[in-house]
Design brief:
Largest sheet: 2 strands, antiparallel
Strand order of the largest sheet: 1-2
Radius of gyration: 23 Å
Length: 439
Amino acid sequence: MIFKEINFYQTYNINFLGQLSFLLGTFFLGSVLPLSIIFYLISILISFQNKIFQIFKNKFNNFLLITSGLMIFSNLNNSFNVSSKDFFDIWISLFNWLPLFFLYSCSKIYLNSIEKRVIFTKFLIAGTIPVLISCILQNWFGVVGPFELFNGLIVWYMDKLDLNDIAISGLFSNRNYAGLWLSTTFGLSIYELLNLQGNLYKKIFIIIFNFLTILFTIFTFSRNALLGLLIIFVVVLKKFKFIIPFFSLYLFSNFLVLNTSINNFLELNNLSNLKRFFILNLDNILNFNRIEVFSISGRLILEKPIFGWGASTFPEMYEMSGGVQSTQHSHNMILELAYNYGIPIALLLAGFVSFLLFKTIKTVYVKYSENEKNLINKCWIASSLVVTISHLSDITYYDGKISILIWVLLSGLECIIKEGQINSLNNYSFLQKSYLKSP
């Protein structure tokens, strides 16, 4: 049983309850979000109660606290310029950020050692089993949802297949969400695959789990998910030979996305049509949906660069600016933050995440690259890179499952950095003592 993995917590006290609640929140995150949130809230409250003074002494936490204040101030500024509906929406949108900043700050006590991050990985793997089951039911048995419990509080979407009935989304509402979840999970589950231990049944389970995770990640035909698999193979395994096959899959998924019916392609039965189909001219590039959305987003940002326009106003402003795509956001997280809250906040949060990533990479790959225990840290970096890079061309953040997972991963990055600093101090102290004892 997976719960045997937490037996290194010998003291069954309030701290144990917090750790267990955090792990149960992780277990239910992929399939039963409301229950997951309840467990995470319990773990947050326990962490905050025990570490209230340490939380506000941490420079990363204080940075997010300042950012929260700036977001609130931005909303106050925008409240005078929006409709009553948008007024409500821009304040509700803060729940996508402020509670997750708090989750980041309070999760570190549950991730501050390699052992705890390994346990987190095991619970995330176990919690992804329902996601894989939903993919199996949808792809192999043609089961179509949505399935709801408690008046829609819990929903497994399993929508009708799209992209010529081959792309799957599982219990998520969108194939891109499913693809990102699976590719991010694989970034951590590959640790178990490379560190196979235990009895035969456990080894078989890990092999099957990773195989299905890769398979259904590909079947989502999400370009970012396929790119995520490539990132994981290169970062963790340093297998650059995977670049060619995954780049081929990436191109194929682009073909499917841009041409949702292969029959339409087959109708182009003469050379001139085929030539026109494949050749991109300047007009085509400028009208490509992402480029068009980025372009309009940039123009709108420059009109209100300091405080932005306010969250939830983008679809209306995009359409008023001549946009022709059906889009709810800017498809780039930096642009999204700049549009919603202003360029300063976008730069602050982009810089925050970039610093965590670069500092962690330096710690893991430069200082302690030969340490065998660093494998879980490398996998953690790979998963963090997957979710970060994916948000440069798409935004899956507004799915609660994904946004929670992102901030937990970022919290783990800071823990890895702190571990590296402690190891450096310990090594320095050891060298000092050795030098003083030498004749």
